[in-house]
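Fold this sequence, please.
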Amino acid sequence: MAVVEAHQRCCKQTSRDGPQQRLTNFKRTYLQLQQSWQKAAKRQSDPALGGTIAPSLQIINQNLRDEIHTPAPHLCIQNVATAQVYLLVYSIGVINCNEQAIKETLRFFGLLVDSEDEDFINDASFADRLLVLVQAASSAGFTSGSEIDIEIAELLFAVTAKLRQQPEISSAWFRPGLDAEQFPSPDGSISVSESEEFPLVFKLLEYVHYDGKVGDFARIGLLYILESTCRSYQLEKWIIESELATMMASGLADDNSKVALSYANGSVPPVLAFSNVTNPDSPDDAEPIFSNTLQTNLATFLSYLAFWQDMLERCPSSDIKATLLDHFEFLFLRPVL
């Protein structure tokens, strides 16, 4: 008897949490989200703008998260695709200034990236909106290294992981010469910036210097992109001709300068012992040798230097390696020695 009752409770639970019921809950919450957003859009200065929206986004995300971990059919994700739910969520993330609401919009896009059911990751329109959302979130004025930065870096990493697994989808994210004819320069030549051709790379570059999860996600994401060059001559050529190596080497030089300038009492760390800053003048604002600021700068520099080693070891292209080493020598090594 107890077994029968347990089975009946299980059946009721399965029915209550089944695909159809989950879809019903999803649609109801999405309708509430639409209504809340329409009301909030009319009073954008209201500080409660995101407070009424974030809870609905949380429920939607939980529905998607639960569905991803259950067997098909995944009706909620199908509904996101057919109703283009991500367009509304994108609008909320770009316009909103509420931290929790922005985090939920980033998580929503991350769930769609991870989804195996629909072709979101291969949709250029989806890719464009994701990158605009990331740019808006990173420019919203939150503290550097905040939870928003973690969500952004994790989302970008998820995209690179997909690109690594499915190189055929890269055309949605890497589009050299994209609409070049629409951007003629005054002399009639083509004018399309590299950041427009592969914005994912330049977004990752903004976070490679960060500590913790943010920097880890960004650095591994860039490594995944470099690994993908073995399957795409066009991507390999683009990386060689782009500003990637220049920005990477310049970033390393900047980190080195921060360490050198913050050292006091004529003492330098072993990594700088052979450079031309072995006996630096100690400015009034120089950091004590064991200060938190100095140790942080040194850790950041060494972490970035280790990342350079990882790039050279894991990059399959000898031409890209040569380009990186050339820039490493001219923009970092020579000025230091």
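The radius of gyration is 24 Å. Confidence is low (pLDDT under 50) at residues 1-15, 180-191.
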